[in-house]
Structures
1.
Amino acid sequence: MRPVTEAELAEAVAGASGPLLVRGGGTRTLGHAVGEVLETGGLSGVELYEPGALTLVVRAGTPVAEVEEVLASERQRLAFEVPDLRGLLGREGLSTIGGVLAANASGPRRVQVGAARDAALGVRFVDGTGAVVKNGGRVMKNVTGYDLVKLMAGSRGALGVLSEVSFKVQAQPEAEATLIVEGLGDEAGLAALRVALGSPFDVSGAARHSGRSLIRVEGMAGSVAYRVRELTARVGGEVSVVEAEASTRLWREVRDVAPFHGRPGEVWRIATLPTVAAEIVAGLEGQALWDWGGGLIWLLLDHGRGAEVAAAVAGRGHATLVRGEGGPVFPPEAPEVAALVAGVKAKFDPRGILNRGMMG
Amino acid sequence: MQMPKPDQGVLARKSRIVTRLRAVLPADAVIDAVEELRVYECDALTAYRCPPLAAVLPRTTDEVAAVLRVCWEEGVPVVPRGSGTSLAGGAMPTADSVILGVARMNRVLAADYDNRFVHVEAGRTNLSVTGAVEAEGFFYAPDPSSQLACAIAGNIAMNSGGAHCLKYGVTTNNLLGVRLVQMDGTIVTLGGPWGEPSGLDLLGVVCGSEGQLGVVTEAWLRILPKPEGARPVLVGFNSNEVAGACVSDIIKAGILPVAIEFMDRPCIRATEAFAKAGYPDCEALLIIEVEGSEAEIAEQLGRIKDIALAHDPVEFREAADEDQAKRIWLGRKSAFGAMGQINDYMCLDGTIPVSSLPHVLKRIGEMSQEFGLDVGNVFHAGDGNMHPLILFNANTPGDLEKCEAFGAEILKLCVEVGGCLTGEHGVGIEKRDLMAVQFAPADMEAQMRVKDVFDPKWLLNPAKVFPLATSAERRAG
């Protein structure tokens, strides 16, 4: 099914006789849900764009590439850097903006500006009964009623099918530069990232892979130059600096987990505390890409290491299997949290038809 | 303001309920004497008062759980309270309710600078969170103007904002995790110091749920390194339209000031009479603050100056030193006090799209004439969060009602132009009955379903947020 209006979408959900597999572009879907495919790609197009208010309202099936093009025409962008996971997951297709919010997909700039959830101002969605619901709006400060925008962000279609999303957007900076720090081991290289993030120099990216730590600053030209100097004096190691497109390329690789493309094995995505990020990886002996100053670990491992990963992360974060066969995809919640999750799902989708089994 | 009739059964069982509360709490943590309960009869929305059945001041999460279990078993409504600074009546009790104050839970449990978070008990005041980490060069970003007094628990309940959220976001963007006690006494941890949700983002819906889903007893908060410096400029314009256009151009140019504050003529005149900050007598005044090193500040202010001068301001005032910077902020920071000198006032906080600013200010001016009540506007212009202050005299019969009717019209206007009823204060009881202006029944139904899961008996802060008729069936159990 491929509805082209919100009303058609509502009818499709209300009239469904069995499970539905909700899909934007299918480029970042996780898990093992089955059902009749319900595509959102027909709900496409920009509803409202006010560059002077940094506001974008767009239908959920609009391709991310189209959104980025519209914003670029006014020298603006989505602040949270949408990862393109096609290379990592071996997918094709066009990522949709609704899918991005449904996955709360957020790249390196999360350390500075937050995740997709933090940029989202409003949603419209069709819940599992076929009812159309709106929440939030198009203004930056809004505490009117409960914040279902956050609840929908990252819910991966389990509570409802997004039909429209609004975002706070960001001006493109006039300059960008990246410090490449070499000659440090993982422990010291990650410590350098923490020094940078703990400084007042407004770091917008802090990552490490392939033996190099990367630290990004963006903004006005004079300010970028100043902060590069100050950070270089503080982080240690051997520092070289790249600017503009060369810097952008480095962060695209981090964002899309490019070092793992075409490499066999299972890929885990681990959220943790930066100070234990080196130790977790050392214990598991895999290949790692650290983002968010170490708060996010992309880990490439052999098949069947789920139990070890869970043990290494227990009590200090959580791990999601994003590519691989074995084990549950999403980490199990504590029983009292699982009860709340099950309760919320049952309220929004009483028939249990939306992406059944995707989030466990 | 209508509140539900108190449950006579609960009132009749007061002594039994108090006895049960005393059995699970230390003696000094249960208050039931009528004269002592008057402290809890209202919050900062002082127009409405009602003493609660009792008040409890637990010191630990386990004590909170014990209190809630007793109230759950007894069918007693519970009204959570941080510091009682809500402008929306979020902590206002009913006669059959127990006030659960978290003020005694105010410890810092951990400050982790390497991982950039602080773990606090939720009764801690907003400003003292920054106080606990500033020696190491860090701060907690959300800064509601009541930050000296307001508690993190209330900030989380209302998803509080502040003057600097244009750059740093509001509470939800700086909240990493909470410990929450559900009405039946179940203790859950949502999120954690790593910040990234592992499944459904329940933390995201708890923040801003106005104490209706659970009682937050601990929070993990993101802390940020303090900027090297900050400096404001003041720009005066003879037209609201032009001031609005200037704000829009600054934002479009990619400059991200930490604050853009806007004051209109009635507010400028009132603050001048009160604080004598030396503001120009003009229609609209902007205070724009930027952060960074000396050179970075100069770079940003230079750009802002170019944009502002292109709009032909009546004045562009820079601060040469700390003292001059303070004088620029002086009038803005005295605005509420200045309006309060003139008369009683009601403060609203609807948000509008920035592009609608001139139209909304013009309409508010017209309505001010129609209602015969003066209004001053002072607000966060960068994010469209208005703060109209309507002046009235509480001693004049009918004035409060007239003021409320005027306020309701302003909020309807905010929604009409694409905005919302409240940007940072919350709905509480104050805007409860206007929710249907912004939301269709299905929108509110979806929100109430979340409460059904967390608090199936609807005992936590039940008569707030949703219009009484809309929530009646659920509250009746």
2.
Amino acid sequence: MIELNHLTKEYPSPAGTVKALTDIHLTIPDGAVYGIIGLSGAGKSTLVRCINLLERPTAGQVLIDGEDLTHAKKKRLSEVRANIGMIFQNFNLLEQRSVEANVRFPLELARFDKAKRKARVEELLALVGLSDKAKAYPSQLSGGQKQRVAIARALATSPKYLLCDEATSALDPNTTSSILALLKEINQTLGVTIVVITHEMRVVESICTDVAVIADSRIAEMGKVADVFSDPKSAIARELIIPDLIRSVKSRGGNKLRLIFDGTLSDMPIISALAMDTGEAVNIVYADTKIIDGKPFGHMVIALPEAPARAQAVKNYLTQKQVLFKEEI
Amino acid sequence: MSRLFEQLGAQGFLLGAWETVFLTFASTLAAYLIGLPLGVLLCVTDRGGIRPIVWLNKIVGFAVNIFRSIPFIILMVALIPLSRALLGTSIGNSAMIFMLVVAAVPYVARMVESSVKEVDSGVIEAARSMGASSFQIVCKVLLPEAKPSLIVGAVISTVTVLGYSAMAGTIAAGGLGSIAVTQARPSNAQDVIWLCVALIVVIVQVIQEVGMLIAKRTDRRISKNKRAKAQRTDSV
């Protein structure tokens, strides 16, 4: 388990102190795929670097399995880092080393038994599907292949945690999907807890179990992906998760309802049923549903009839059908 | 053909060329033994380096700048007493090597520093995230990743030292420079001077070409046009 307690990070700058992180409180349970999403400059890269202490927090604690890393000795910190793999947006492979030598690198650092290294490297390259590229050099690989090598390298010392800093941001959509699928597989088959830093909603959507939304150096909102996505409360989360919905709501006058589908009702033809049962034909202003965690989730915005009594009838009907909804102005 | 030219003969010129090559390589090699660690130290201890020790960096940097700004011919004269104290002599090839090393070390240190600084900070960060110690980062990341650039730097340093070695005649050391300046110049043997020039040009060209070839051959990054030709399987 990774726990961040009241974490604060400040940088000195000519214009005064810059706060990169403000009182971050976060718990990442074992086995999770934890997404940390935010716009660029929100502090998410600093946050992930505080986890393995590449950045030293100004205040607060970083607890890895209960051990406070901010007070760890150098040697101990090296050991703990071998238990926390990390991959990067720019892959950061050693350009002068072959693929297999890159994967072997952390094993050399940890003074792994020479005989065991070779077998381990082969095993890892097979895991990421690059056994045939063992002798190639990074400059001969595509972006997706480079990230696979980086993943194999990060997993070499069998870490319990894997930190991904914008790992798919430099990749095209298809490659992104394949890398995300690989990360999900690693989480499920090896039980590695994964922390994903990203500015892309689709990354969180497709692999994360939990999410924290970070804005202006603070956590704006966090929780299970299903919960946060079905009902984002903070302004920044709404802007990130349902930007089109916000726009469509603003572009049209009158009272509107946002229906929230949380995975139990969305395959029911609720609007048709509403029209038939109450005689109220409502306008759909916006609709978007997604499959997350194998369940359907989504939002739909409908325009309410202007007459208060008829609007109330619609609401009563939805309540009776156990459809979650919120009024949107 | 001048009398000196006949006196020297093929053997004389070959000996001169050999002495030039020997002085140059022996001095450059010795200069790297000290300059390489010094250059790494300059890079590593710099603000933003992997182990910032600003005061040490400032002191070493200052010393390097001082030595680099002294013209070699003056440095040689200044080093005469020290050479006598350390080597028991201030003339001949061994004194010359000593002086060349003193002159080359700061130069080499700056060369090495700039090569090592080119290494992508992301790669260093990746190594740190894997638990690498500063020493491991130097040995396994900085130096191997900077290798092609270090080789290019070594070629430039060698050629610079070769240039300095031409002043060997001043302290009765050998080489083509010495032949041209102390033997051919007084008797105005133009043919000897020009042959020395030609031989030095050939030596420099050989060092340059071979060095660059090695740098290119050992570099695992593919240049852009090579990449276009290289077969790529974007199956992922």
3.
Amino acid sequence: MSTDNTTPSADATIDAAEVQALRERVDELEASLAELDDGDDQQKMTIIATQGSFDMAYPPLILASTAAAFGWDVVVFHTFWGLDILHEEKSKELKLSAVGNPSMPMPNALAALPGMDSMATKMMQKKIDENGTATIEELIDLSLDQGVDLQACQMTIELMEYDEDDFYDGVTTGVGAATAIQHMAESDVQLLV
Amino acid sequence: MSSEYETTETLDVKGLSCPMPIVKTKQAIDDLEAGDVLEVISTDSGSMSDIQGWAEGTDGVDLLDQVEADDLYTHYVKKTA
């Protein structure tokens, strides 16, 4: 660790002030290094949830609650139709779209008939129930319990003319894209759903 | 098989699917003391890989063993810290 054992051959004398300046610089660098090492090795994840259909509500919530179980710091930023996932009433009425869904065992012309979305949703809900898959509400509760920050985009709240009280207790409101960007920049994993 | 480990508590997540076995395991581990062993009984075949991944990625837990028998997947997780 000694710093004074290299003597340049051409100039054997080192200015005391120069040494002092170097020592100060080393101290400075060591301090900023210690700051970087501040033990903050917690992993972070940001998910941007933009979709409000029944099937698209699941992936962000499943990933968020699982990452929280790993002890990660998780933010899910809900914007546009993704906001409906956090809306206490609307989250219970999310629909699966039968039209344009290649996994549906029916042609689009049939899928477009009235009542088809509701039917497809009911079928999916039944399967989910039989499979022991959690409901959307359960996943929201579970996520909030584990400290996941579920954020509702303020701009979309106003756009959709929702009220802050419409959302589940514990949902963060009054946040915008800048808040999301900030957390994304610090995150190890960023996802757009 | 289970007699190999001094199990402190048993968590029954039979019938539940992803992500519940992981989330419930994490919550149960939080309530235990260091040195305790949690036995998790699941019917979810995905829990074999998931519990392993979770244990590897989580500080303070050690996966002692995983046993598959009669469509039941049993995991032994020790809280180390």
4.
Amino acid sequence: MRAIKFLLQKEFRQIFRNRSILAMILVMPVMQLLILPLAANYEVKNIYLAVVDHDHSSYSQKMIEKITSSGYFRLTGYNNSYQEAFRLIESDDADVVLEIPSGFERNLIREDEQKLLIAVNAINGVKANLGSAYLATIIRNYNQDIRIDFMQAGRFNDIPTIKVTSSNWFNPNLNYRVYMVPGILAVLVTMIGGFLTALNIVKEKEAGTIEQINVTPIRKHHFILGKLIPFWILGNIVFTIGLLVSWLIYGIVPVGNLALLYGFVSIYLLAVLGLGLLVSTFCDTQQQAMFIMFFFMMIFILLGGLFTAIDSMPEWAQVITRFNPVSYLIAVMRMVILKGSTFRDVLPHLGIIALFAIGLNSWAILNYKKAN
Amino acid sequence: MKEAVIKTENLTKRFGDFIATNAITLEVYTGEIFGFLGANGAGKTTAMRMLCGLSIPSSGNAVIAGYDVYRETEKIKKNIGYMSQKFSLYEDLTVLENIRFFGGIYGLPDDEIARKSDELINQLGLQNEAKKLVSGLPLGWKQKLSFSVAVLHQPKIVFLDEPTGGVDPVTRRQFWDLIYDAAEKGVTVFVTTHYMDEAEYCNRVSIMVDGRIEALDTPHNLKKKFSASSMDEVFYQLARGAKRAD
């Protein structure tokens, strides 16, 4: 046990002497939490709209006004022909073309029916889908507005309507940041835990210092504990900084129990530290370790439910996410921070993460050899 | 009767088809300075790593400080010190911190660590550098420091793998003074080197060629046997036939 004391002392000295790691530990959570939730936003705004108005009537003017005042669209072209407008799509100056045929106003009033054409640039699928949906909704609303204008009240009321009222729970303003922040916290903890452990041990291999350690009578598990404990503590520190930043900047205060949150993160950290340790036993250079960790991180993050909901992934991808520790942490972070879920709610997640921790660390310890 | 502190019998290490160390048999006696010579790629480092418990032999036997090299590597490690070819103390720790760390790892009590650190720093004349990072030290000092750290826990044997590579003759001389000091205190020294003047300082030397030990005797007897005026010539006669090189 005395050996661990000396190992920890040495490890902390090295960490605190390495300014770039210290800076990363402080700057990374602040920067990521400041920038990402504001920038990586799935709300689609600023859809460029080109209008081809063949009617030039007051009705068509009113409709265009209604569309542009919605805040989602920016009128970038007001063209005389569809070809002209389509050229704007080709040059990326427009995302959506709305063509209003001549006789729009007349047909609407006399025949009670008029067709419009919406052409969408579908390269960015999300923008295209949402753009045309927004546009259709605005036009439908406009349609109702004008019907009130020229139809007799009695006839209008004949149309049976279902009115749906919805209420948004846990994130009443549908604020995307509230959804992102807990997820980014999860990624932060993973990066610090996994990368730093893997790189630290491989660095000792590169420098040859690990050989000097291997020739001492130090016990294998003492050495490993001496490596894991410092990064476990660092992971918790980074998590704390992250929580403070999300409180100060976004006013997000965990609804659930803080102790539960820290308890889960602590066990989760053991799992990612185990992964880092395992990777380090397979690598001889920091470059290799970096690439392998990066490979895992990319998959973990993209298949972790940070940006895209796991429920809407294809079946096979959902199976993969079950083997992704990050997906459990992201889920639990959102559950506890936003919904106030309790120990019972996260117990299944906790069990799986504990299995990850045991499995990865056992494998790493088996694979770590003092002699070859 | 001299007591053998290292005893190997047909010790062999294979890497696939390549036999790095081929059936070496030797005995090293307590308190001896044993020179383990050989050209580059002759298999010296591999042999030494097996004796230190860093590498598991493919076949053959070895007993180090009374412990078996297969089953009792951790006991061997308590009784040996090792200094590798590559400087392997922590560059981002100070001189004093390195000494304390390795002292602690070898299980020395705090008061002994403190006493030994002072002693060692005075002996090496590093009073002004004690609190400076090791990375700033000149190579010669780093090597002296590694040696001192390797014998800090008073091991029975210290293994030195090309300890004086790349330093000037004066510093090498000082380094050998340290080796003599240690040997006088009863530490057996097992050292590899490419400098034949250093070979002359050893009690006995062995010369490895292509994984085998081709000669083993005192420098004096070897020179007589090969009718050579210096160890340089002895080495040349044996090693020029070598097929392996780096």
